[in-house]
Design brief:
This protein is of the alpha+beta class. Helices cover about 20% and strands about 30% of the residues. It has 3 helices and 6 strands. The protein has a 6-stranded antiparallel barrel. The chain is globular.
Length: about 120
């Protein structure tokens, strides 16, 4: 139920080259077919959002968008790699990263502005 914001550059040939922002919630702590390395979320995404950050209200990375379940009767069932799985991958491959300890909530326009450089 945690609120999240998805950032990315979906469908640039149709929607243009500016950053796109959608919001939703974490709907499941597991992904497709119960994959525990992923989580489910409701922020609408499109092709081109894959690899984009899913952040919380503190602009801390929660997950990285990977896919959406598609179908005539399916809406906003999307999946992302959990940040813990990403940290393990980075550590296993000796890639340095920083952890945020921010406890200051920020609004979505500020999240977008602060995130432009790394999306």
């Amino acid at each position: 139920g945690q609120s999240i914001t998805a950032l990315g550059y979906p469908l640039v040939d149709v929607l243009g080259a500016e950053i796109k922002v959608t919001t939703g919630i974490i709907s499941s702590m597991s992904g497709y077919k119960g994959n525990n390395n992923h989580l489910g979320f409701t922020a609408p995404i499109q092709p081109g959002n894959s690899g984009g950050p899913i952040v919380d209200q503190y602009n801390r990375l929660v997950a990285v968008a990977t896919s959406a379940l598609m179908g005539e009767d399916i809406q906003n069932i999307n999946f992302a790699i959990k940040v813990g799985s990403l940290q393990k991958f980075l550590g296993d491959n000796h890639i340095k990263y920083e952890l945020s300890s921010s406890i200051t909530q920020i609004d979505i326009p500020t999240i977008v502005e602060k995130s432009r450089d790394y999306v």
